[in-house]
Amino acid sequence: MDRRKLRDGVYKMGAIDWDRRLFDSLIPLPDGTSYNCYLIEGSEKVALLDTVDPAMLHVLKRQLDDVPQIDYVIAHHAEQDHSGASDSCWRNTRMRGPWSARNAKTCLLTTCIFQPIGSSSQ
Question: Which domains does the chain have, with CATH numbers?
Answer without folding.
Answer: 4-108 (3.60.15.10)
